[in-house]
């Protein structure tokens, strides 16, 4: 079954953080493979309909068995920073193009995880504290993003969509593309790797192949945009 997968997300660790991560991934309809060294957790994941492997995710063989070579990303959620570091090193060696998101339980280990090859490092405790503070400081904004990103039954979603080389959008300005009228999607930001960051586009901003668009819309609206960002038929 794993050999047939492509662009799956591998989750290392089926504890509280891992399970919470999977809940959101399931809402986005991503293919998921779980790795955990605890046989009881593996059985629990399988009973919940997930593909799950028992093993040490820092071992190359286990990562290969999970289909790392053809995976889109790996999310490392174990509670041990030293183990997370070894998993990052192994994953980056096997798949240099992989998106790696790693958990850091201690802030001083964030730099080490990045040096080892993690693209993003997340501290659940820091994020939890920031979220609670934002509820007090800017409650309306926090409520809005809770609805958009966490509740699968809600209408709106934030996604990032990449413009392919042969997309009809490539070469057009944002005004010419007229994404809002044609799909209903709201263009929030644009990420261009060679420019090193996010920008807020205006009507004159020229869209290029490889641009990542951060957009807000319903599932149907996002599907319509994905057709426009795909190669011309």
Architecture blueprint of SSEs:
Blueprint: E1 9-12, H1 16-27, E2 32-36, H2 39-47, E3 51-54, H3 60-65, E4 73-76, H4 81-94, E5 99-103, H5 110-116, E6 120-122, H6 124-137, H7 139-150, E7 157-162, H8 174-177, H9 179-183, E8 186-192, E9 197-199, E10 212-217, H10 219-229
Parallel strand pairs: 1-2, 1-4, 2-3, 4-5, 5-6
Antiparallel strand pairs: 7-10, 8-9, 8-10
Helix pairs in contact: 6-7
Descriptive report:
- This protein is an alpha/beta fold.
- It has three domains: 2-122, Rossmann fold (3-Layer(aba) Sandwich), CATH 3.40.50; 128-153, no CATH class; 157-229, Alpha-Beta Plaits, CATH 3.30.70.1450.
- It is 40% helix and 20% strand.
- The protein has ten helices and ten strands.
- The chain has helices at residues 16-27, 39-47, 60-65, 81-94, 110-116, 124-137, 139-150, 174-177, 179-183, 219-229, and strands spanning 9-12, 32-36, 51-54, 73-76, 99-103, 120-122, 157-162, 186-192, 197-199, 212-217.
- The chain has a six-stranded parallel β-sheet, sandwiched between helices.
- The longest helix has 14 residues, at 81-94.
- The chain is globular.
- The mean pLDDT is 87.
